[in-house]
Specification:
The relative contact order is 0.08. α15 links the parallel β20 (386-390) and β21. The chain has helices at residues 7-14, 53-58, 82-96, 110-122, 139-145, 165-173, 188-191, 194-201, 223-232, 281-296, 301-306, 337-348, 368-373, 376-381, 395-400, 413-423, 441-450; strands at 5-6, 17-18, 23-24, 26-28, 38-41, 63-66, 76-78, 100-105, 127-129, 153-157, 177-180, 213-217, 237-242, 249-257, 260-267, 270-276, 319-323, 326-331, 354-359, 386-390, 406-410, 429-433. α4 (110-122) packs across α10 (281-296) and α16 runs parallel beside α17. It has 451 residues and is α/β, with parallel strands linked by helices. It has a 9-stranded mixed β-sheet with strand order 9-10-8-11-12-13-14-15-16, with helices on both faces. Strands 17-18-22-19-20-21 form a 6-stranded mixed β-sheet, with helices on both faces. Bound molecules: adenosine-5'-diphosphate and magnesium ion. Magnesium ion binds at residues 110-111, 133, 135, 157.
Length: 451
């Protein structure tokens, strides 16, 4: 196989200087996950990557991109600024590529939708995707610079926590399809309103190639605002996915089945029936968005849909396991009001005593208390039997719960876990969800040990 980056191509892209010839098969910014043959890019972040160049070569790096001279026993590509150098590689990878590209953003569901697209597009041709949740100022260029020249499709996750961030990132990606999964109050402390969040997310449409398609979450209260922004910047097509009759991709039926769902949909008027290997209406709508992207890229929607049986829920985002007679839904990776409601709806589908273990949603701004108290409605709809809460913000929800539902409230996961463990019995279904900072993964670990 030809190298992802030869020293000649990397020099041309970055205007840097290579101390010796090399051929890199991948790119890494972290020596702990570096794969033999990778070009190690020494970024300056919390730590200075230049300190890790020897470790990179020890792990088998083919070369290192650096911005200052250092002693080295391997080829160095010297550039003025390593983050700019990585961006240069990203832009060059885009220029040389014929791939059809989907960019994904949204307040929840980016990684899930990206992983669904990996399978859907992967069934049709070689597909390059962002690794993990690499969606920020270094994650997007890293993902793009890692795109093989011969990839037929690519899916890039793009995140943000301030205005202008997506605009800069999508300018490198230049997708044919730009997809917004959903808009929810996340990072509200900074943005102040969901309208502002929608506007920041809509920057993704500005990077569309001529004639490209904006994919809009029609069920979102901010769908019309997004569509209007897409029209303003002259997106080639503005298309909708959701449950309404005017959607270009429409969810017509959803039936929970063992470890997944049977989905009936219509994509541009053509009926598509398929099995999705993960339960939850929100995941089904993500899949619908993915199939709309496939249709826009003139891929075979029926074949792509048939492949989605193999999509399994992701770790911390709905993955399930059994532990000593109880079933656990691990949603510990993150939480905002939209993903909380989605996860509680999942719990509502469960058979057994339904137990919700919920931690604070962070960065919710001045209205944090009311956003937490509002979870009483999806808890009621899910007919949760017992609710365990942790974090100071969850106090507002605790106060709204009827006594019969109150399992326990504590300020930290560590204090909540013993209360929870005492209460569990065989046949229970336990949903665990909260912002990552609430460390509910400790509750997951405790439940595994119980098993
Ligand atoms: N369309 C959606 N609406 C609401 N919540 C969703 C949606 N898709 C996924 N989720 C939930 O949001 C959480 C984060 O999912 P993830 O795909 O990692 O999102 P992101 O990459 O945007 O952070 C998970 O709990 C997941 O189940
Ligand atoms: Mg993500």
């Amino acid at each position: 196989m030809s190298a992802l980056w030869t020293s000649a191509d990397a020099q041309a892209a970055t205007l840097g200087h290579a101390s010796a010839a090399f051929g890199a098969s991948g790119i890494s910014i972290d020596t702990r996950t570096l794969v033999r043959g990778d070009l190690f890019v020494a970024l300056k972040d919390a730590r200075d990557g230049h300190d890790f160049v020897p470790a990179a070569f020890a792990a088998g790096a083919s070369a290192a991109m650096v911005s200052r001279m250092l002693e080295s026993n391997g080829p160095l590509l010297t550039v003025a600024n390593t983050l700019r150098g990585l961006e240069d590689l990203a832009r060059a990878a885009r220029v040389r590529s014929n791939a059809k590209i989907v960019a994904v953003t949204g307040s929840a569901g980016k990684t899930t939708t990206k992983e669904i697209l990996r399978i859907a597009l992967g069934a049709l041709g070689s597909t390059h995707c962002s690794a993990a949740s690499f969606n920020n100022h270094w994650g997007v260029p890293l993902s793009l610079a890692s795109m093989p020249a011969e990839a037929r499709y690519a899916v890039l996750e793009i995140g943000m926590n301030h205005f202008g961030e997506i605009r800069a990132l999508v300018g490198m990606v230049r997708p044919q399809v730009a997809l917004v999964t959903t808009i929810a109050p996340a990072h509200l402390a900074f943005f102040g309103s969901c309208e502002a969040i929608a506007d920041a997310k809509s920057e993704i449409f500005e990077g569309l190639e001529a004639g490209g398609a904006a994919l809009i979450p029609a069920d979102s209260p901010y769908g019309e605002r997004l569509a209007q922004r897409a029209r303003q910047i002259h997106a080639g097509r503005v298309l909708r996915f959701g449950s309404g009759p005017d959607c270009d991709a429409r969810l017509s039926s959803y039936d929970a089945i063992d470890a997944g769902a049977r989905i009936g949909a219509e994509v541009f008027g053509t009926p598509v029936e398929f099995v999705l290997g993960a339960p939850g209406r929100h995941i089904a709508v993500n899949a619908l968005a993915a199939l709309l992207a496939v249709a826009v890229l003139e891929g075979d929607v029926l074949n792509a849909a048939a492949a989605l049986k193999s999509f399994g829920p992701l770790k911390g985002r709905g993955a399930r396991f059994s532990a000593g007679g109880i079933e656990v839904i691990d949603e510990s990776y993150n939480a905002n009001p939209a993903s909380m409601a989605a996860a509680l709806a999942l719990l509502g589908e469960a058979k057994g005593r339904r137990i919700a273990v919920l931690g604070d949603m962070l960065e919710m701004g001045a209205d944090a208390a009311s956003h937490h108290a509002s979870l009483a409605a999806p808890i009621e709809a899910a007919r949760a039997d017992l609710v365990f809460l942790c974090g100071p913000n969850m106090r507002a929800l605790w106060d709204k719960l009827p006594a019969s539902r109150r399992g326990g409230h504590a300020l930290s996961a560590g204090e909540l876990i013993p209360l929870l463990m005492r209460e569990l019995r065989d046949g229970d279904v336990v949903l665990v969800k909260g912002s990552n900072g609430m460390k509910l993964s400790a509750a997951i670990d405790a439940l595994k040990v119980r098993g």
